[in-house]
Write a structure and sequence with these properties.
The protein is 74% helix and 4% strand. It is mostly helical and 314 residues long. The radius of gyration is 22 Å and the shape is globular.
């Protein structure tokens, strides 16, 4: 089909890791192990929280939702990436690319907003402990999760629309291993400056505004912790926030490097490395940090394993 003197694009070629042909099989093995670890870790957290009644509080409700969202987030990218590592020519259809971008951005922005909600939950728990059960009731927690998901996917619809309303008439080689914003903007035949500004503003709104809200929560939390008279009380209060803070720094650090910089500074090798960090390393970090650093989850896991062992003996 022709449009003027240029042919329209019906599929894209994902360059991804094709620049490292000797490493593709080793990368497939390493990434497969990491992906299985992500799935196992998140599923264990979700099942543990669901089965143990002592974890049926807002903090762990949000953690279970985040683990579910992270699992879906990785599912939109990693299986396709693993298949492409074993193919000579990695391709994705125009529609497939659009769906991948929509789902990836939707879950990514939902995760950002969920981290804000988790920061607010820690603020209420530490700064307003007497009002915590009333303020963070089940109805409000559900509304906050619905708001996070609805807002994330609504913004994703708008960003995906602005990208795919651009004309793509060749070349069709995406300098990435999945359909992301910057490499697709580079392929467009025409520039949509209004669209690019809107995309940047949405990214700024989600990444920077969310991060600032989390920082505000932690400033208030730190102020309250410093007023606690005993060292043990301070340590216990801070320990409930440490896991969340580690995940926030890694998550928003990678997101800001990728999405809050000029598109002209896009480079394949550098961005591939950073993208691997936020598509594989960060989702793997979440269950590791929340299980290794959280005593409540550790105790619940031991109880669950103990019940399973006892059941097998019977």
């Amino acid at each position: 089909m022709k449009q003027g003197n240029q042919s329209m694009v019906f599929e894209f070629i994902l360059i991804g890791f094709s620049g490292f042909p000797d490493l593709q099989v080793p990368l497939f093995v390493v990434f497969s192990i990491m992906y299985l670890a992500i799935l196992a870790g998140n599923i264990i957290i979700i099942v543990t929280i669901r089965r143990d009644s002592s974890l049926h509080i807002p903090m762990y409700f949000f953690l279970a939702v985040l683990s579910t969202s992270e699992t879906c987030y990785t599912f939109t990218i990693i299986p396709n990436m693993l298949v492409n590592l074993l193919k000579e020519k990695a391709t994705i259809s125009f529609i497939g690319c659009m769906i991948q971008m929509y789902t990836f951005l939707g879950f990514a922005m939902t995760n950002c907003l969920l981290l804000v909600v988790m920061g607010y939950d820690r603020y209420v728990c530490i700064c307003k402990p007497l009002h915590y059960p009333i303020l963070m009731n089940q109805r409000l927690c559900t509304k906050l999760v619905v708001f996070s998901a609805t807002s994330g996917f609504l913004l994703s619809v708008l960003e995906t629309y602005f990208i795919f309303s651009l004309p793509f008439c060749g070349p069709n080689k995406i300098q990435h291993f999945f359909c992301d914003l910057a490499p697709l903007l580079q392929l467009a035949c025409a520039r949509n400056y209004v669209g690019e500004i809107v995309i940047f503003l949405f990214s700024f709104l989600v990444v920077v505004f969310s991060f600032l809200l989390i920082i505000l929560s932690y400033i208030l939390i730190l102020t309250t912790i410093l007023k606690i008279p005993t060292a043990e009380g301070k340590r216990k209060a801070f320990s409930t926030c440490a896991s969340h803070l580690i995940v926030v720094v890694v998550h928003f650090g990678c997101a800001s490097i990728i999405y809050l910089r000029p598109q002209s500074r896009y480079t394949l090798k550098e961005d591939t490395f950073i993208s691997v960090t936020y598509t594989l390393v960060t989702p793997l970090l979440n269950p590791v940090v929340y299980s290794l650093r959280n005593k409540d989850v550790q105790i619940a896991l031991k109880k669950s394993l103990g019940r399973s062992t006892h059941a097998r003996k019977l």
